[in-house]
Design goal:
Chain lengths: 325, 104
Amino acid sequence: MKYKDYYAILGVERTASDEQIKKAYRHLARKYHPDVSKDPAGEDKFKDAAEAYKTLKDATARKAYDRLGSHPSGEEFQPSQDWGEQFKTQFGDGTSSFDGVDLSDLFASFSQGRGRDGNGREQSHRNRVVAGEDFDVTTQITLEQAFSGTEVDLNLSVPTYDEHGQMRREVRTLQARIPKGATAGLRLRLRGQGSKGQNGGRDGDVYLNIALRPHPLFRVDGYDLYLDLPLAPWEAALGTVVEVPTLAGRVNLKVGALASSGHQLRLAKRGLPKSGGGEGDLFAVIKIVMPSEISERETALFRELADVTTFKPRSEVFKQANHAN
Amino acid sequence: MQTESHNVLWLDHTQCVSVQDLVDLSGLIETEVCELVCAGALIPDNYRELPWTFSGDCVVTVRRASRLRDELELDDHALALTLGLLEQVRALEAEISKLRAQQA
């Protein structure tokens, strides 16, 4: 198994007091807890800190950890036979080998091995009721997948127990069918598909957090979609009919005369399908754009327009600003 | 490696859950769930009637509460405050996301 330096993870000396260990953990937890941190690497850092704290705050587990000796982080090592003998009551039945066991799982079975029943009596590892582990997984899907529904493969590292009660992990692939109605931030539950409970404990669940991949055309707000609709100035002035893409195919959209930048045209029920039925809307946001170059003839026509128009686009805005001053 | 295919349950307003469901899925005890309701961190669909029922997204809230309580060692008051602040952050992020989506 690979050695993890729990003291280094928490940033404390090996001689640190319980109070110093708790303080160091709380500092890291505040910084990296996935519910409060925006750091993409925060979750892994928090898991390491939580694993280290869980072991070092328990006097017996800390003693067992210290007896493993000090190794460089990541170095492969095996606990000695003496160590297995000394702490065998805490790990399975003590007869299992440590091959393929992760250090975190070794100490997780340590705490499980010292469980108590409802009357405070020691329960042996073999008959203790243990609920299966839940998994929280974020999966990224495309807008097209959210629109039509999709299937995703989830690779879970689930704990299994050998005949001696020693925990090991194996990869299990779950195929989850995500029906129409998923959008960013929505959670789904796969009941009973986490790890198996032990001795009558409930099976764990899998919680799926949906994230949407950015789309080159559409922006998403809940179940509504927004699309930029570039228009030439003369299209905005005279009105036009434009073909616009939607997730269900192209549709013709009528733009009335005298459209301005920022105006939104709503295409009802052309957004994402909702989990409870119905659909969001698609909004085409008008953006008046100019060509990067114009011909002499076009320039002349614009000059002619400038000469005949009485439109003063800034007069109202500046008048309000003058009143404010 | 095994591959299995499974359907999913929405955790949103289309699902209705009980206090017992929230207890079972979060590891909190009933009193703690009720304290979250009293603190305003959890809002039943039928506050004035018993038994309370909740929207499916409350499962996400109580699981978060359970994690925060265990992993940050928060007491009930700190937990309710933290959940309230996180909800404010979520609402602000949703507002920013909406404004960004609308921006041409």
